Amino acid sequence: MPTIDEALKSAYAECKPFDILARDLRVLIMANEGFHDQIDVIFYKDKEMKKYDLFRSQVERLKNNEPVEYVIGEAEFLQHRLYVDNRVLIPRGETEELVSLISERISNYFEPRQYLVAADIGTGSGCITIALKESFKNWMIYPTDISPDSMEVAKINFAKEGTRCEPLIGDALEPFIEKKMNLDIIVSNPPYILNEEDAQDSVKDFEPARALWMNKEKNVYKSIFENYRKVKKGCLFMAFEISPDIVDYLTDLMKKNLSDYEYEFVNDLNELTRFLIVFCK
């Protein structure tokens, strides 16, 4: 069997025409060899690779545009290593920023240590619920998803991370309206891509379509803004991940449906408009 360094260099030369990053190859080796960090791949480069045949089969999957997270069945999110497969979106850095934004802003509206009821709508892998529950242990968080398949993945991660929550199946606010529940906080990273050509091939080919493409006539933002009064008892804080392409659409939607509210569009680290904060009094 080749050494880790030999296998890595050979695979990288082979993968250059496919625009595969050296980072992704290191991630494969880290997962296969039981390393904790990518730096271990370099530190132990002279060791014989234990699972060379597996590595080679995984490289072929990368060459077919499959995301490395699906290949290894794991994605990192705010120091958590979560299980993922093609039933859910791969958690991304922008969603980590959304969680950080909520943590920073919530004290402007509520005493964050008090008991608050929050909805994580379209939970997918469960990453938002897991991260928020870690920071705000007194919150009762209800992760929801329209897809039972997605929720199965989320439940794996809730169990793995020891996250206490109550998962619900349903579209947007429907589970809460049916149960006549009141919410203090609504968080959502819903489908927001308008143009399919804007997405990378690996996204279009492998990630679940229902979590990607947005229809202006029927979508999570519209459903929440049209029905928020049915779950609002006192003040209501809402935080969304968005696309820069839908800022005007969301502004009009709020004007048509919300009352006594304030809002702010917030840029991500790449200076793209990526988040919407809404507070209804």
Please describe the structure with a list of short key phrases separated by commas or semicolons:
alpha/beta; 7-stranded mixed sheet; Rossmann fold; 12 helices; single chain; 281 residues
| CATH fold node name of the largest domain | Rossmann fold
Q: Give me the Rg, rounded.
A: 21 Å
- Estimate percent helicity: 25-40%
Mean pLDDT: 93
In total, the number of domains comes to 2
How far is it from the N-terminal to the C-terminal residue, by CA?
65 Å
User: Which architecture of the largest domain does the CATH hierarchy give at level 2?
Assistant: 3-Layer(aba) Sandwich
Query: Would you identify the CATH H-level superfamily of the largest domain?
Result: Vaccinia Virus protein VP39
Order of helices and strands: HHHHHEEHEHEHEHEHHEHEE
Q: Please give the number of β-strands.
A: 9
Shape descriptor reads elongated
Strand arrangement across the biggest beta sheet: 5-4-3-6-7-9-8
The number of helical runs is 12
CATH class of the largest domain: Alpha Beta
Low-confidence stretches: none
- Proportion of beta-strand residues: 15-25%
The SS-based structural class is alpha/beta
Write up what this structure looks like.
The chain is α/β, with parallel strands linked by helices and 281 residues long. The chain folds into 2 domains: 4-64; 75-280, Rossmann fold (3-Layer(aba) Sandwich). It has helices spanning 4-15, 22-33, 39-43, 52-63, 68-72, 93-105, 127-135, 148-161, 174-178, 201-206, 220-227, 247-257; strands at 75-77, 80-82, 117-121, 140-145, 168-169, 183-188, 232-241, 261-267, 273-280. It has a 7-stranded mixed β-sheet. The termini are far apart. The relative contact order is 0.11. The model has no long low-confidence stretch (mean pLDDT 93).
